[in-house]
Amino acid sequence: MKNTFLMRNPSILIFLGLLALFTLAVTLMSEATGAGLISTSFVKTLGKTLCLCLIAIAMDLVWGYTGILSLGHFAFFGLGGYMIGMWLMYERTRQIVEGSLANAEIPPTAQEITDAIGTQIFGVVGSSDFPAIWAFADSLAIQLILVVAVPGLLALVFGWLAFRSRVTGVYLSILTQAMTLALALYLFQNDSGLRGNNGLSGLQNLPGAGDIPQSMVSIWFFWASALALALGYLLAAFVVSGKFGSVIRGIRDDEVRVRFLGYSVEGYKLFIFVITAMISGIAGALYYPQAGIINPAEIAPIASIYLAVWVAIGGRGRLYGAVIGAALVSLVSTWFTGGQVPDLPLGFSTIKWVDWWQVVLGLSFVLVTLFAPKGIGGLFDLLEGIRSPKRHGAPLGPDAGSLQEREAQE
Amino acid sequence: MRPLTPIPDFPGFSFMRPFLILLGAVILLALSLPVQAGPVQDILQEHSTILKKSSRKTIQPAIDALANSGLPQAQQVLQVWQAKDMWLRQEDGLFFKGETLPSKAIRLTDFDTGDVVGEADKKALKQLKPNSGIRALIATALVQFQLSDPDPARRAEALTAIERAPDASTLAPLSGSIGGETDATLKARKQRLERLLTISFDKDDDARIAAIESFAGDLGVDVRAALNPILTTTRRVFAGDPPVGLNIARMLKPGADALPEAEAYDLIVAAKLGPPRLTADDLRAAMLANIENGAVGGVPVADLNTDEVRIRAYAALAEAGAVPAAVTDAQATEAVKTHRFADIYEEQSQAVTDAAGAALKAIEAKVALNQGLDLGLDALSLASIYFLAAIGLAITFGVMGVINMAHGEFIMMGAYTGYVVQQVVPNYTVSIIVAIPLAFAVTFAAGVAMERLVIRWLYSRPLETLLATFGISIALQQLAKNIFGTQARPLTSPGWLDGAWVLNDVVSISYIRIAIFVLALIFLLFFLFLMKKTRLGLETRAVTQNPGMAASMGINPDRVNMLTFGLGSGIAGIAGVAIGLYAKVTSELGSDYIVQSFMTVVVGGVGNIWGTLLGATMIGALQKGIEWLNPSNTLAAQTYMIIFIIIFIQFRPRGIIALKGRAAGD
């Protein structure tokens, strides 16, 4: 079975091979495990990029294959980050607090330790009590389960409500955007229990690994991200191949027809929505320890729209397209906004790329949508000689799918 | 015939002589005593003993004599005295206004004439230094002068000062000044203030009750400010029943919500009726203080890591007499049971507190009603802002079905157009009149350009329209940032839009919000007229319902789409000017409104302007309602509102007013 699945999809093997090569190359060039050609911060950037590729795969699954333009997947990404962040922050603070209290004249009680941790973590929002949502913060196992459970549950409830009432197309997009905005606004409050707009910080320090240098930690996370991306790619490829994949593509192209054929469209959509939310949660849980800080601004609707932009530029409906888009656009964005690109003198004024990159990105996105709907992935079609049918002339009517002038003559 | 008599002495001369002598004497006198005693000096001399002694208890007659003398200089004398500028000349006991010169000498000025009488050495003088008590008494006396000042502005000023810091001592002068008040407005103000001061400071309970009752149903904030202190209570604990004579607001039963047991015991401790409870901190401190040979009360230090062990160690310490015995929970409960708790009014008279309570209750009921009205106005104003922001979308998204994520940026463009116009045209009124059509023109052009260049290629792919317009949106936003910078730009409204329409102390609405409401109304009428009565509206509706059929009827769908889209964008531009007037213009102005605008259109029902109106009203009312329930937190209000909308969509997926039949499209 596995053999035939891989045989039918040679692109998987190529992708996994390239990913393995890339991981090996970065490992050999990193400061901790190799020649030190790549700085620790760049290893982190690459690791983060792999996480973004993973969520781009999730986005491709839900948008490119199932046709649901979700503008909420970065909310799931952020939730995953928050879940792991709670454990990282609690555990590290606990170790510091215990370390400092151990020197006291009499040993601290459990209550005193909890109070001290609470003051450390929530002092910044003027509180010292642990909110109920931190109940499991001391347990890594439970927080790891929550990394997938919380986004999955939110997606389940939201998706069930939305799909049940047949909200589709742009309405669903706006609704998911509203959900993301609601979540971000909620987290911005100081009494949300997650430190308001301060967010969770110091996540790059692994509890109990204080002696291990960041260069080593960064390469660990890089490996974990690469592994997660490989597994996520395999899972996504498995889901979209075979009959299940055919049904969800059918839903994308004509939902009503699939429903009339007897398939439970809502069930399929809900499954895809929930599983991609979980993948996003995992991606977030790997991303934010590398970023070191998470705050509600990360969840804002604009982030989810950028995600859609990456997938569209990379090429919808093909998994490697999503990966290419996410990697390319996020890395180029980092490059441009990091101020490393030389300014472009135009004589009358100078173009500072830090200021103008957004404009270029926005316009290039319009161009891709208009002229290359297949995105960068379309180039691979050209290599294989697959071309879209040529439709010349102006459309005869403004309806979707109306014949073009030339077609009518033939 | 009368014999000639010698010419007698010129009669006048004989009279003149003693006069001249007198004159000479006076001049001589004046030379030796340079100041002629005047009425002010007389009063001061009369009270010179108490003035010199200067005690708060005895000084009142002197102040009264000055204040009630009716002399024009009285006010100045009091002010000088209050400012510690009154000096006593030792040699003759006269009082002067003194000014310290750079040479350390004192220049003396006579109170009656205002003439400088000379300079004197500090040693020959004595400065009158009224203490703070006396100065307060003087200030009270001065209020009367200000309250009766010929200048109405000064009188109003004095009233404002009293209003700001009401004080018992101001009541009498205020009452005194009412009779002579000529200005009707000021008189009404004085009378109102007198009644307020009566409530707070009058000695006579009946007068206070009468004053309280005279304010029945008055919505003024000042009334509530006067009534509330009367009703302040302190929570007290008594070993037995509360003593008679206390004005008890209510008795409290410990253990209920109003007074949890722990709090009740804290009251007992605070009243020194019982020993304090052992807190975790006390416990820890006791442990730290009694470490002996690595153990506390026989318990090794290393074992002291739970509260139970610590309490055991503490008990051992108490037995040894090292620490006072701790209060156990049972003892605390017992103590709470035997004590009585009550809220006691600080005001002694029960009749007054009852009257104040009743009046405040009636006022609060009325205030609640008015607050409801105010909330309604707020909601209406927010709704009109949402409606303004959404009406352009109602055209492009509602009628044409085009998702324009750059709609918010058109609003922003409109606002920036207004800002640029104000840079060129300095007159605010003119600039707004110029800005509105200009904003329409700019955004109309931008909308048409966008439709021609991008959107028309994507009519059959709505999701891609969404993304492409989003690309334009981020490009426009960044462009605005590059041109205008990140800081907020002001769009100043004309002077006649400043201020607010104040109905009473509770209900008020700013003119600018009324203007926005009116603008929203105009747009609604314009939209209805355009869609129902004009050729373009007819064609738009035809193209929306069935583009193929419309095209075969001779309508050019391309042209109609272009114009409709331009129109929707143009209206967004005008909305931008309006929104910019009351919010700061930033490059993020549009994105603040875009989600709400889409919500408004979706909730209302796509393709129907009445639906958009209802949607805006509902969202505005909802947001204000939630804000009212949770006033400190607008973020939470928005969160709950969005959740509500998501649930609302479950029950009416096509909005409040859903199109039915063929018009509904698919």
Question: What's the layout of helices and strands?
Answer:
The complex is a heterodimer of chains A (410) and B (666).
Chain A: H1 2-8, H2 10-29, H3 40-65, H4 73-101, H5 110-122, H6 140-164, H7 169-188, E1 200-201, H8 214-240, H9 242-253, H10 255-260, H11 265-291, E2 293-294, H12 301-314, H13 319-337, E3 344-345, E4 350-351, H14 353-371, H15 378-384, H16 405-409
Antiparallel strand pairs in A: 1-2, 3-4
Helix pairs in contact in A: 2-8, 3-8, 3-11, 3-12, 3-13, 4-5, 4-6, 4-11, 6-11, 8-11, 12-13
Chain B: H1 11-32, H2 39-46, H3 48-53, H4 60-67, H5 74-82, E1 86-89, E2 95-100, E3 106-109, E4 116-120, E5 125-127, H6 132-147, H7 152-164, H8 171-178, H9 184-201, H10 205-214, H11 221-230, E6 233-238, E7 248-252, H12 261-270, H13 280-289, E8 295-296, E9 299-300, H14 307-320, H15 329-338, E10 340-345, H16 350-399, H17 407-424, H18 428-453, H19 462-484, E11 500-502, E12 508-510, H20 511-533, H21 535-545, H22 547-552, H23 557-582, H24 589-604, H25 609-629, H26 634-651
Helix pairs in contact in B: 4-6, 5-6, 6-8, 7-9, 8-9, 9-10, 9-11, 10-16, 11-16, 12-15, 13-14, 16-20, 16-23, 16-24, 16-25, 17-18, 17-19, 17-23, 17-24, 18-23, 20-21, 20-23, 21-23, 24-25, 25-26
In short:
By secondary structure, chain A is mainly alpha-helical. Chain A is 67% helix and 2% strand. Chain A is built from 16 helices and four strands.
